[in-house]
Amino acid sequence: MSNHSADYRNTLGIFPTGVTIITTLDKDGREAGFTASSFNSVSLDPQLVLWSLAKSSSLLSVFENTESYAVHFLAADQTDISNTFASPILDRFAEVDWALSDSKLPILANCAAHLECASRHVYEGGDHLIFVGEVIHHQCDQDKKALVYHRGEYSECKPLGE
Length: 162
Description:
It is a single chain. This protein is mainly β. The protein has a single domain, classed as Roll (Pnp Oxidase, Chain A). Helix content is 15%, strand content 46%. It has 3 helices and 12 strands, in the order αβββββαβαββββββ. The chain has a 7-stranded antiparallel β-sheet. It has a 3-stranded antiparallel β-sheet with strand order 1-11-12, with no helix packed on it. The radius of gyration is 16 Å and the shape is globular. The protein starts with a helix and ends in a 6-residue tail after the last strand.
């Protein structure tokens, strides 16, 4: 990474982002997932969200070819899960509490929220692909604080007045 790129990355780090994990099943029915901070809502009607994945990711073909995926908003106490899904280990699901949803997506337990999405569009985005999904189901635990990433560190999102 050039110095210019490092400066740009530091500039982007000023903006706090939520920490998510995106999960799906591959064509052979094996669980796949990774940690992502590149998540955003797109539209309320229809309910659309987007996220991106590096073209260099070993999971790129899995997500390019899936029909659905789940987006998990991690709770403030889930830094260990975030680190697991950001690591290069092969079986990221081995030590994590999860279950298949009715729509056959791997859903991680105890998250602040999750969205189950139908894959709608994939767009070129420089060194990443941008995925747009339509939310088909969502669930939220209003009592959980969200995990955020800011200036290269984990933090938690606190309600105003707290």
